[in-house]
Write a structure and sequence with these properties.
Number of strands: 0
Strand content: under 5%
Distance between the termini: 91 Å
Largest sheet: none
Length: about 200
């Protein structure tokens, strides 16, 4: 069995010394010590989870759990926003193309109005209405993508928050509804004399 406190102290020392060696230029020795320190820290955390022998070991488990959950949040956040960015870039490209087409048709509508070509004007107006709907759809799509990314990150944030403890005030049990025996005051009975045959 690995003693959590000893493994934690040795692992932290090896990790720190390994980092110092890496910074000073001793790459191989530094990497070996960093790896050894990481292994010892992993053993310390595992041992502290199984046998929480000391306050230091328990604190290290809490710290590692907190760090792990924060890293998980960062990973989910980065993934959500990276995916959202790709979708938004695609939607914005489509928006640029639609707006360019809209401007072309708007210009053509002006030329048709100048010529008083009613049939072409109506066709161009219909095309502009369709383009307006497509542009609005892409703009709404961008907002939806951002909203989904925010919700995904928020769900992960809520999932890693510690559970809050609370107490409910207990009310005293009404008489007669508990399992204890109680003395009930009695009233003496009156003796009734009845004639017996």
């Amino acid at each position: 069995m690995v003693q959590p406190t000893a493994a934690l102290v040795l692992g932290a020392a090896a990790l720190a010394f390994g980092i110092v060696l890496l910074v000073s230029g001793s790459t191989i020795a530094g990497l070996v010590l960093v790896g050894f320190g990481a292994i010892l820290l992993a053993f310390a955390i595992d041992a502290a989870r199984r046998w929480p022998a000391s306050a230091l070991a328990q604190a290290s488990v809490r710290v590692m759990d907190t760090v792990g959950s924060r890293l998980g949040l960062a990973r989910v956040s980065a993934g959500a926003w990276a995916g959202a960015s790709r979708e938004v870039i695609g939607l914005r490209r489509e928006l640029r193309e639609l707006r360019s087409e809209w401007e072309t048709q708007q210009s053509a509508l002006g030329a048709a109005a100048y010529r008083n070509d009613e049939a072409e004007m109506e066709a161009l107006r219909e095309g502009l209405r369709e383009l307006d709907e497509q542009i609005e759809g892409r703009e709404q799509g961008i907002e939806d993508v951002k909203y989904r990314a925010r919700m995904r990150v928020e769900r992960e944030r809520v999932a890693i928050e510690p559970t809050q403890q609370f107490a409910v005030a207990e009310e005293p049990t009404p008489p007669g509804e508990d399992d204890e025996t109680h003395e009930v005051p009695t009233v003496p009975r009156r003796s009734t004399s009845t004639g017996r045959a």
